[in-house]
Write a structure and sequence with these properties.
With 422 residues, this protein is α/β, with parallel strands linked by helices. It has two domains: 16-64, no CATH class; 72-420, Rossmann fold, CATH 3.40.50. 28% of the residues lie in helices and 16% in strands. α6 links the parallel β11 (298-302) and β12. It starts with 17 loop residues before the first helix and ends with a helix. The model is unreliable at 1-63 (pLDDT under 50). The protein binds 2-acetamido-2-deoxy-beta-D-glucopyranose (5 copies).
Length: 422
């Protein structure tokens, strides 16, 4: 059954009529019946109906456009691209490590001696449909005269670099550059007048970990209501991709600053990780609502990037971690315990309640299978390793970050799918 109305069939300046109220009631009734699928299709129109209902009906202009900005098609109805499995694919990776000069040495696994390459030859296959093929020239043409920005922590930086690697081959050597100014890294495609940027803000809000280089602070403090501190640098961006997660996982309550970092006597309250994270999510959505034009821009949020620090979590032997792992977890019911269902719950809950058009990149579960895709010991080390460490590689394996090329290219394929085929 298909609803036989569309927003454009409404009168231009509708009065509050019983007809409209009946119509609204009907929309909500159908939405209720068809649950999530219906919400995906009509969620935005519904949200705008409900918000204009609570203010006034004299602004029908606020009704959403039929088509999201940048969309050129649609993903097959009912297909959740985040639900699927990993398949071997020898046509991967989409670029070679040695061919992309922008990968930071913390992620160049082959250069640092990784002996296996299977982690590069995997493709994400959604259960219900195929992902559209990543089209670098379409992406670059779309970015002409525009700014795209990733905002968040080092995991988001990895996705940023992956995207630059996926695109840079199409740009001649003398027509591209990458520069860093404090928290901001800017890749410029000169002939396209396009930039792809990364902004370091691991909590999104102001914190004492905001220095882009020196940010290893044990006693982390986040300032409440401070998103504009960083947000002023995101204004005017056309496509935004946020993430934040890892830095909240301190294992203890979060310290939240109420005043300013300059106050001599700081007023600090402690919040549970969940409450603190929820506060940040709400700040992000409020910022998006006030600063992004839903007719012209798109905003994405990447869910938690899982880590693989304890092999017992996937039935491995005690004391192990991602070190020496060369294949994904093949249990389709595996859910990485570390990535905390509670945080996913908060993301789901906050997004559901929100009227702000922001697209979730739900990369948590699909990445959870990829115990083989971390940088492990095959990366530039921050400091020289001791003999004791060298004798026991498990002790210094990085099971948080991901090799490039690798898993994060898939995150960008999903971003591509959600941008052009929402
Ligand atoms: C969005 O586009 C519609 C027409 O599609 C227009 O009426 C409305 O004013 C626009 N909203 C904003 C915030 O620019
Ligand atoms: C990629 O996008 C360009 C438009 O920028 C289009 O001309 C081309 O046909 C696309 N390639 C594929 C394989 O779809
Ligand atoms: C280049 O892009 C910026 C937006 O990023 C825009 O403001 C500017 O007008 C563009 N310049 C040209 C020459 O197209
Ligand atoms: C790494 O894996 C190989 C083969 O799976 C195994 O023989 C070796 O003992 C493992 N090494 C460690 C340190 O776990
Ligand atoms: C993310 O995707 C997984 C796997 O499809 C699903 O179980 C989970 O509910 C999703 N989370 C949200 C917030 O949509």
């Amino acid at each position: 059954m298909k609803p036989s109305f569309s927003p454009s069939s409404l009168p231009r300046k509708p009065p509050i009529s019983p007809y409209l109220i009946t119509l609204l009631a009907f929309i909500f009734f159908v939405a209720f019946l068809y649950g999530e699928d219906f919400m995906c299709l009509f969620g935005q129109q519904l949200q705008l109906y409900s918000s204009s209902y609570s203010t006034s009906f004299s602004t029908p202009e606020r009704i959403k456009p039929q088509k999201l900005p940048f969309a050129i098609g649609k993903t097959e109805e009912g297909c959740d691209v985040f639900s699927g499995s990993w398949v071997k694919d020898e046509s991967r990776p989409l670029y070679e490590e040695s061919e992309c000069p922008y990968i930071q040495p913390q992620l160049t696994c082959q250069e640092h001696g990784r002996p296996d390459k299977d982690y590069q030859h995997r493709r994400w296959q959604p259960h219900g449909c195929d992902l559209p093929e990543f089209n670098a020239s379409l992406m670059l043409e779309t970015l002409r005269g525009k700014r795209m920005m990733f905002v968040g922590d080092s995991l988001n930086r990895g996705q940023y670099v992956s995207l630059v690697c996926l695109l840079h081959r199409l740009i001649p050597e003398d027509a591209k550059s990458m520069e860093t100014f404090d928290s901001l890294t800017v890749f410029t495609a000169k002939e396209y007048n396009a930039t792809i940027e990364f902004y370091w803000a691991p909590f999104l809000l102001e914190s004492n970990s905001d220095n882009a280089v020196i940010h290893r602070v044990n006693d982390r403090i986040v300032r409440k209501g401070s998103i504009n501190k960083h947000g002023k640098h995101w204004k005017g961006v056309d496509i935004l991709v946020f993430n934040t997660y890892l830095w909240w996982m301190t294992g203890i309550d979060m310290k939240i600053l109420l005043g300013s970092f300059d106050d001599e006597e700081k007023e600090i309250v402690e919040l549970s990780t969940e409450d603190a994270y929820r506060m940040a999510m709400k700040s992000m959505l409020r910022w998006v609502k006030l600063n992004m034009d839903p007719n012209k821009t798109r905003v994405f949020f990447a869910s938690m990037s899982p880590s693989h620090g304890k092999s017992i979590e996937w039935g491995g032997k005690e004391g192990g971690n991602c070190y020496n792992q060369t294949s994904p977890i093949d249990d389709p019911t595996y859910w990485d315990p570390e990535s905390r269902k509670s945080i996913m719950g908060i993301i789901g809950e906050v997004f559901k309640k929100s009227k702000v058009p922001i697209t979730l990149l739900n990369i948590t579960e699909l990445s959870g299978y990829r115990k083989d895709a971390h940088t492990s010991i095959y990366k530039k080390q921050w400091s020289p390793l001791t003999a004791e460490q060298l004798a026991n590689p498990v002790s210094y394996a990085d099971c948080v970050h991901w090799c490039l090329p690798g898993l994060q290219d898939t995150w960008n394929e999903l971003l591509f799918a959600k941008l052009f085929y929402p």
